[in-house]
Sequence to fold (321 residues):
Amino acid sequence: MAVDEFGLIARYFSGRGASRPDVQLGIGDDCALLQPHAGSLLAVTTDTLIAGVHFPHDDPPHAIGHKAVAVNLSDLAAMGADPAWISLAISLPSPQPDWLQRFAQGVDEICRYHDVALVGGDTTRGPLAITITAHGWVPEGKALKRSGARPGDGIYVSGTLGEAAAGLALVQQRLELAKAEREPLLQRLRYPTPRVSLGRELRGMASAAIDISDGLLADLGHILRASAVDADIHLELLPAVALADQQQALDWALAGGDDYELCFTVPAELRGRLETVVARLGLPVAYIGDVTHKGLGRLSLRHHGERVEHQLRPYNHFPES
Fold:
């Protein structure tokens, strides 16, 4: 049955996500009306996912909906923010009811899990592309930034790095594995987990933080440059994807991207507090190196103390020619 733009919004997106008391007016008017939180700052982030660039054209629509929200919530987690609302703009070649229903379910489930309301957006005809703007709250003075790392801080990452890159290699038939080994990697690619609880716990503890979307080398580099410090990473401590080809696993852990884990720095005197938090959350967090001294953002890779050279380049939408 044919459906126009406004019928599409009403049928597939109205009422999606959590019901929140700070949403006075959601989908259905020219703007959403949202109630500010006293004593908190509003954190806002926007990400666009394009078919064929950020996900394969034939990915399950439920997974596309999940991932579109998750990558934005990951940015909020990196700031220590509690997610609250999203708006969704989607460009579609044509309104396919089954695809839209499953996509909307993916959006709805992750929003409800994280108590996020879908409050507005837009639909247009065109190549498949999804843009989400996510809003969250962080107590004033508690936001995690990229610019606070100091010499002596330890460097940490959550989860396992390189699994999503391995999943992409499976999709692109650049990697062959048995089915039991394939499925967890494909799940990590299609259903990233935003580390919202960890980001919240890092308030007042982490000196700097970022989410790993473009690969550890690139994203840790943003912290180092913003903080004007240099650092060492110890490769033997890196929680890399488990593969028979250990060099490939290490390369994907360093520069594969799409991990959506958190990378953060913590002063040495707060390490015990971090260990307590990590144990309570039940989330794997690994110490991988140290901020060494003030500098220009240089990152040294070491293996059992020996300097290691590399030629890895993170993904860049607009690489220098």
